[in-house]
């Protein structure tokens, strides 16, 4: 294979030395591609060049011949570095392909349909800052009748593929635990034991879990170190925090989580979010909470999904259309009674 390459190189070089026609140099581009395809190192091309010149000029000065020794030694080092570069580039392409496959699998595995046929209107926007998201949300029909709806949002502290695996663990553990006992404090307690036994010591998971009870029009919730949710009371046109405290999942197996509750009237709205929402960055720093609530209020008359989409687009624009962290916003609005 290299003999054919050498013959082509000789032909191009001899033609150029005889005619000095720049059109001949365009053939070098094709030859370069052949050299790369055949993994011919730069130092071998120099030897081919020197050999061709010696045939062309039998009386080539000795100093010209010796100069090739310096060039050859230089290109040996360059060639080794170039081959290492090619190897790394090949590995990067393979890794990128694997990450893209993992991203596709994650989207398929973690896809969650919004509940329908209830007195609640749901909306959600979930966007990854990188290829793999560290956020996971879920909606659970706990009794099969849509009388009790579980809502979960978790955020893995740690990104990439390890975070994706941790999310998968939560996804498959959550339904069984929640259907066994709907109490949010119990659900978090059991998930905490699962996480403590299965995730790396340098990772942990924050989580907000709540249950809407249709019969009582009541929202019960608990938090494992997750971002504080927001409640909008339509009657008074006021916002309040869905205050809850607790250690993130996976730190201490014996942690207890406290349950809170909130009565939900028609047109009241619940906002559950990851820190990608609350830590929106602008030129002047992080967005303050009053500013965030003002944005929520701006779109309060919209349907839940329209509201979630509008808030996301507004916050994304504030950040010059670049997310700094995974962004998940869940909007739950009790429908107006007819």
Search tags:
single chain, 338 residues, alpha+beta, Methyltransferase, Methionine Synthase (B12-binding Domains), Chain A, domain 1, Phosphatase 2c, domain 1, 2 domains, 5-stranded antiparallel β-sheet, 12 strands, 48% helix, elongated, phosphatase activity, Bact_Sigma-Reg, KaiA/RbsU_helical_domain_sf
What this model shows, in words?
By secondary structure, the protein is α+β, with helices and mostly antiparallel strands. It is built from 9 helices and 12 strands. It has helices at residues 2-19, 22-37, 42-56, 62-110, 160-180, 184-198, 275-278, 289-298, 304-318; strands at residues 120-127, 135-141, 148-157, 204-213, 218-224, 229-233, 238-242, 260-263, 269-273, 281-282, 285-286, 327-334. The strands form 3 sheets. Strands 1-12-9-6-7 form a 5-stranded antiparallel β-sheet. It has a 5-stranded antiparallel β-sheet with strand order 2-3-4-5-8, with helices on one face.
Helix run count = 9
Order of helices and strands: HHHHEEEHHEEEEEEHEEHHE
What does the overall shape look like?
A: elongated
Low-pLDDT stretches:
none
- Roughly how much helix do the residues carry, as a percent range? 40-55%
CATH topology of the largest domain: Phosphatase 2c, domain 1
Summarize the topology.
Elements: H1 2-19, H2 22-37, H3 42-56, H4 62-110, E1 120-127, E2 135-141, E3 148-157, H5 160-180, H6 184-198, E4 204-213, E5 218-224, E6 229-233, E7 238-242, E8 260-263, E9 269-273, H7 275-278, E10 281-282, E11 285-286, H8 289-298, H9 304-318, E12 327-334
Antiparallel strand pairs: 1-12, 2-3, 3-4, 4-5, 5-8, 6-7, 6-9, 9-12, 10-11
Helix pairs in contact: 1-2, 1-3, 3-4, 4-5, 5-6
